Amino acid sequence: MRSAAPLLAAFAAGAGAFVLQVLIPRVLAPHTGTTIEAWTTAIAVVMLGSALGNRRGGTWARRRPDAGAALLVRALVYAAVGVEFAALVGPTGATTSPYDSSGLWVGSAVWALPATYALGLVFPLAAALATRGHPAPGRVLGRLSAAGSAGCVAGLLGTAFVVVPHVGVRAALHGTAAGLAVVAAALALLGRRGAAGLASRTPDLAPDLAPA
User: pLDDT tens-digit profile of 179-210?
Assistant: First the structure.
């Protein structure tokens, strides 16, 4: 699991973050129009949540270095729940109040903050898991960053050119939540198989105490 899981998690987190970055302005558009303020709000919420999540994820990784795989799965589950919350609350919870130059724009998309926070947990946990005991941590971090960036590109292009033209915003958010849950389940399954394989290769070192 160690080699594949962090890359897959980084890809999924990057994709999820950029799906939200495209969909937040779509949620706000009926109330605010497609404005620079709406797009700025989306970027700010994604970056703010990611920053807070990165900090917390790093703390988790430092305090529980032996539970990296389990924490990575937990972060993805939290992300799936956060995006599902956004799907249920966002399209109906976005404010309809008119905005002016003094309006608190970020408050209009606070419903997306739990999802972006949970997505922010993923990268430091993936980095800690992938680099633990690795002789070339810089190379590993480069691959993780590339996987996350590839996920961002996939989320951005897929949402803008495929999802938005064919399905509604709520359905897109539901689908993103489901995708993150599937990735979490896949990583949990990989972790169990890896642990089982390790146990099967470990010799029984206990002495035979049975009488001859």
Answer: 999 999 999 998 776 554 444 444 444 444 44
